[in-house]
Amino acid sequence: ANYGPNPICKGCLSCSKDNGCIRCQHKLFFFLRREGMRQYGECLHSCPSGYYGLRTPDMNRCSRCRIENCDSCFSRDFCTKCKTGFYSHRGRCFRGCPAGFAALEELMECVEGCEVGQWSEWGTCSRNNKTCGFKWGLETRTRQIVKKPAKDTIPCPTIAESRRCKMAMRHCPGGERPAKTKDKKKKKKNLMERAQKQHSIFLATDKTSQ
């Protein structure tokens, strides 16, 4: 029987005009649909989004998924597909994958990622393989890959990083100073020689004028 624009009694064993299906045929799932203040029963082959099919000896029913942001679930507490924008991980839905897991974008799942160890201590400050002779250098620290990712497409975090550092000894003991320092001294010497030469010329000119 049809009541109104929708065949609300399709697949029913018993049905009422006001409440729709009350009991469903074998293998169909009973779903209680709510529209505003009204609710009525339907008999469906599969449950809608956010529900899963619960089979019982008395009657199969559509039961609501209890997992937040779940689109379809296998059971009350295990989600099989999350809503758009959420990653599936062990039956739950996440905006971002937990620590130690990486996002597999094509499936919107969290898989085991690349696991790295602790950072080492910062190395010696050096520049051009020297630990002296410059004011600033670089120091580096590293860490090891403990566990490779399940998928080759998932990148590992960086395992080496460097930062600027100030050298403990700017000048090397008993060694030559950097070329830049020598150039500065040479330039200063040339300026002094030029000044002395100009001063000598000035004195000679002054005597001649007298």
From TrEMBL:
The keyword Transit peptide does not apply. It comes from the Eukaryota. GO terms for biological process: Wnt signaling pathway. GO terms for molecular function: heparin binding. Coiled coil: none annotated. It is found in: Secreted. Residues 173-210 are annotated as: Disordered. GO terms for cellular component: extracellular region. Pfam families: Furin-like_2 (PF15913). Residues 9-110 form the R-spondin Fu-CRD domain. Keywords: Developmental protein, Disulfide bond, Glycoprotein, Heparin-binding, Secreted, Sensory transduction, Signal, Wnt signaling pathway. The keyword Secreted applies. PANTHER family: NEUROHYPOPHYSIAL HORMONES, N-TERMINAL DOMAIN CONTAINING PROTEIN, R-SPONDIN-2. Belongs to the R-spondin family. This is R-spondin-2. It comes from Pomatorhinus ruficollis (streak-breasted scimitar babbler).
